[in-house]
């Protein structure tokens, strides 16, 4: 079976923040790692630890170079992976394939 495109099932909040030019400081969750690479285009922290969130937030505030590099990288990511005109045809094709596969299986073809 086909797999969805990267980012298809991701939490939308980090992508929206990135598209708005915000520096992401987010909980280290699998869905978030599709978008955020720690120390590259954002900071990941332990979602259960207020101390981890505080340390990451302070680092983000203090490291202007990291924020600048992340801003460039995040614009590139959003343009490549979240542009509606690019993403919607891929999503439509994915769901058409899923429906087709289900129809074939329903007819005893798999």
The gyration radius over C-alpha positions equals: 18 Å
Percentage of residues assigned to helices: 55-70%
Element string (H = helix, E = strand): HEHEHHH
**Which band does the percent of strand residues land in?**
5-15%
Distance linking N and C termini: 11 Å
Structural class, judged by helices and strands? mainly alpha
Care to describe what's here?
The protein has five helices and two strands; from the N terminus they run αβαβααα. By secondary structure, it is mainly alpha-helical. It has a two-stranded parallel sheet with strand order 1-2.
Task: Put the structure in a nutshell.
The protein is mainly α. The chain is 60% helix and 5% strand. The chain has five helices and two strands; from the N terminus they run αβαβααα.
């Amino acid at each position: 079976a086909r797999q969805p495109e990267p980012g298809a099932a991701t939490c939308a909040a980090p992508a929206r923040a990135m598209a708005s030019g915000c520096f992401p400081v987010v909980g280290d969750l699998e869905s978030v790692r599709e978008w955020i690479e720690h120390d590259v285009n954002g900071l990941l922290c332990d979602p259960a630890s207020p101390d981890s969130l505080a340390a990451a937030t302070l680092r983000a505030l203090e490291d202007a170079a990291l924020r600048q590099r992340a801003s460039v990288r995040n614009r590139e990511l959003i343009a490549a992976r979240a542009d509606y005109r690019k993403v919607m045809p891929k999503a439509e094709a994915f769901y058409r394939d899923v429906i087709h596969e289900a129809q074939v299986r329903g007819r005893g073809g798999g």
